[in-house]
């Protein structure tokens, strides 16, 4: 498949950031393997983008994810770029959350990253090239009281990504963690923050642009920790 266009695999292809990432890489000539639970949304993107293929899958189910990755490799080849954008989240203090909720979020945020790396990184190492980008948020950096069911899993995800970066970087595979310190501009957040001005939100297309920039970096100046936020954001 050496004569084919490069392949990007994107998890968590929702209506905001995930779809924007897919469109950004498609615009750069990539074929796209799209993974998400919503098969109808994936089918619509598949119809819109000739080089995109849908692989409906719950990344929180390790067996289903590995089977899906095997199908992607068999059908499209080994990805040149992997963007782990799928997210499992929940709000609540440690008194409120169920242990099963924390475990489910850990499966999506952290274990899925491990499965992706174990299945797909070896071929990148063999080629001496490739990129893994993980989308995170400020919960990966601090644990607030109402994020007890979420922040621990994102912090673990960030540390796992750093371990991958230190292992894979010297082998030619770029790993980066993008912290999105903002409210993403999607319909449900517009409803929740109905009084907020436009510059309160971060645009999904702008996030996708930054991910493309990270993937495109010269290997003499690779980033690992990347943070993006609106210019008015207090941090």
Characteristics of this structure?
235 residues, alpha/beta, Rossmann fold, seven-stranded parallel beta sheet, two-stranded parallel ribbon, 9 strands, 19% strand, globular
Question: How does this model look, in words?
Answer:
This protein has 7 helices and 9 strands. The chain is 43% helix and 19% strand. It has helices at 17-27, 39-48, 62-76, 99-127, 151-168, 187-192, 204-215, and strands at 7-11, 31-36, 52-56, 81-84, 130-137, 173-180, 183-184, 201-202, 225-228.
**CATH fold category name:** Rossmann fold
Secondary structural class: alpha/beta
Strand content: 15-25%
Our count of domains comes out at 1
CATH level-1 class: Alpha Beta
How much helix is in the residues?
40-55%
Order of helices and strands: EHEHEHEHEHEEHEHE
Number of beta strands: 9
What number is the mean pLDDT?
95
* Biggest β-sheet strands, sense, barrel: 7 strands, parallel
Strand order of the largest sheet: 3-2-1-4-5-6-9
Count of helical stretches: 7
Distance between the termini: 46 Å
Query: What gross morphology would you assign?
Result: globular
CATH architecture: 3-Layer(aba) Sandwich
In terms of per-residue confidence, which ranges show pLDDT below 50 for 5 or more consecutive residues?
none
For CATH, the homologous superfamily is named as NAD(P)-binding Rossmann-like Domain
């Amino acid at each position: 498949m050496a004569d084919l266009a490069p392949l990007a695999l994107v998890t968590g292809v929702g209506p905001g950031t995930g779809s924007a990432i897919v469109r950004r890489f498609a615009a750069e000539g990539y074929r796209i393997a799209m993974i998400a639970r919503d098969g109808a949304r994936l089918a619509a993107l598949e119809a819109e983008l000739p080089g995109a293929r849908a692989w409906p899958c719950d990344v929180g189910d390790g067996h289903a994810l590995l089977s899906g990755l095997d199908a992607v490799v068999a059908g499209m080849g080994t990805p040149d770029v992997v963007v782990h954008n799928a997210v499992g989240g929940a709000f609540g203090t440690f008194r409120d959350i169920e242990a099963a909720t924390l475990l489910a979020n850990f499966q999506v945020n952290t274990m899925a990253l491990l499965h992706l790396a174990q299945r797909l990184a070896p071929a990148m190492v063999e080629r001496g090239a490739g990129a893994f980008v993980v989308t995170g948020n400020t919960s990966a950096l601090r644990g607030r009281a109402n994020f007890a069911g979420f922040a621990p899993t994102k912090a673990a995800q960030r540390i796992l990504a750093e371990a991958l970066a230190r292992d894979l970087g010297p082998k030619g595979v770029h790993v980066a963690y993008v912290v999105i310190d903002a409210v993403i501009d999607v319909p449900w957040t517009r409803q929740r923050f109905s009084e907020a001005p436009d510059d309160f939100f971060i645009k999904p297309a702008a996030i996708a642009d930054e991910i493309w920039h990270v993937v495109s970096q010269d290997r003499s100046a690779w980033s690992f920790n990347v943070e993006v936020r609106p210019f008015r954001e207090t941090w």
